[in-house]
Amino acid sequence: MNKNRKLKENKIKGQIEETIVEETEIVGGGNVTEVTEITETTAEAVDITAAEAEAERNALAESIDEGDYLLKVEHLKKYFPLATDFFGRPTSFVRAVDDVTFGVKAGQTVGIVGESGCGKTTMGRTVLRLHSVTGGKVIFDGHDIGSMSASQLRKIRPQIQMIFQDPYSSLSPRLRVGDIIGEAVAEHGIVPKEQLKDYVLSIMNKCGLQTHYYERYPHEFSGGQRQRICIARALALKPKLVICDEPVSALDVSIQAQIINLLKSLQKNDGIAYIFISHDLSVVEHISDEVGVMYLGSMVEYGNKKDIFANPMHPYTQALFSAVPVPDPDVKNKRIILKGDIPSPANPPSGCKFHTRCNKCMEICKTETPVFKEYAPGHRVACHLYEQNNLSGITHE
Ligand code: SF4
After folding, report:
1. Ligand 1 cavity residues, CB under 6 Å
2. Which of 3, 37, 45, 235 is deepest in the core (most CB within 10 A)?
3. How many helices (H) and strands (E) would you count in the chain?
4. Could you give the strand order of the β-sheet that contains 273-277, starting from the edge strand earlier in sequence?
């Protein structure tokens, strides 16, 4: 596979070199036929790059499809209509999630990072089918969630749960804790009716909630305790996958550690898989097995946690990681400050979506979309920086 890729790249390089030679000849007195040949050669080179990009996309989706994953997200797209024509047909879209592919294994955690507005929460909600799927597939335990009917979806829902960012607004103020946790358990028939109270109490105990909280209302609790109630509510349905959407960002640092440790111990005991969405890189490093970095709806880097944290390759990842404080007064962090705001996903920049803010931007970045390529086993990056260097014969670790 790598050999074939190298051959293709050498072929493109050869064609580009031939084009430059031909151009030099034209300057010395070329004719119309030669100009046409150059245009055709360049078009062919672009075609090969496009074909290579398509081959990479398909190879990635294939590897996820054939892999031993509990959740397979393949070329997932979620577009929100922005404007419609006279007949109500959408004419422009916000591309909140644009061609995202990854997999989650049972009992593992995939951390998704990126700044606000990059599409990570929309991606999580689309996986759960809280938003409809615009394109691509979401396959959970062998079932295509994207094409399920409402009744099929209802049966599978207990197995995928979500923990929301704000524990204050995600609990009904009119229900007691016992009812909040037990409501969906009764609805989905997880345990017989006569065992419901004992089951809810056992789940509360597992999540560090005292049993006399059963009769209390959410307003009587602190933020950390409320988040424990949310975790207990999700856990009570015996899920295989939990999507944690910034579950600790509204909590104090000391409480954050308690919640993260609770999630980790539950994973160890029950083999639950997590998609952990956060902008806090220290927390993601602590809890994740694999990490994906999103920018403007697309995955720009993905790999094993150790690879990503030891060797961030994409300039956006490098900038994000440069902001993480190092707990050593002798180490000076070279902070990379990103220019400007994140562009609108309704009108993303051409070429590389990050080019308007990248301190390593080249001419090619403004016009051509980089291929999301594997540069080390399991470590993928979408950046021309490495493609260029590969064409010049420089190989990356
Ligand atoms: Fe920066 Fe270009 Fe790489 Fe995009 S492709 S991240 S603009 S160097």
Report:
1. 314-315, 352, 354-355, 358, 360-362, 365, 370, 383-385
2. 235
3. 13, 12
4. 160-163, 241-245, 273-277, 109-113, 290-295, 298-304, 379-382, 372-376
> Ligand 1 atom 7: the closest Cα is on which residue?
355
Chain mean pLDDT for the chain? 84
* Residue 277 pLDDT greater than 70, yes or no: yes
Looking at residues 125-131, what average pLDDT do you find? 94
Q: Which atom of ligand 1 is nearest to the CA of 358?
A: 1
Report which ligand 1 atom has the smallest distance to the Cα of 315. 6
d(CA 170, CA 19): 61
Give residue 378 CA to ligand 1 midpoint distance, Å. 20
pLDDT (tens digit per residue) in 179-190: 999 999 999 999
Residues recorded for the chain: 397
- Reply yes or no on whether the pLDDT at 384 is more than 70: yes
Report the atom number in ligand 1 closest to the C-alpha of 362: 2
- Backbone CA torsion sign across 201, 130, 300, 117: negative
Inter-CA distances, 309 with 73, 155, 276, 302, 320, Å? 23, 38, 16, 11, 11
Report CA(375)–ligand 1 centroid distance (Å).
15
Per-residue pLDDT reduced to its tens digit, 70-93: 999 999 999 999 888 888 888 889
Contacts 24+ apart (CB under 8 A), 49-53: 49/12, 49/368, 49/371, 52/5, 52/8, 52/371, 53/369, 53/371
pLDDT, tens digit, 9 for 90 and up, residues 284-305: 999 999 999 999 999 999 999 9
3-state DSSP assignment of residue 335? coil
Q: Tell me which of 349 and 18 has the higher pLDDT.
A: 349
Output the six-digit token pair for 72. Answer: 């397979």
pLDDT tens figures, 300-346: 999 999 999 999 999 999 999 887 777 777 767 677 878 777 888 88
Distance, CA of 64 to CA of 101 (rounded, Å): 8
Select from 320, 361, 364 the residue to mutate for testing ligand 1; criterion: most ligand atoms less than 8 Å from CB. Answer: 361
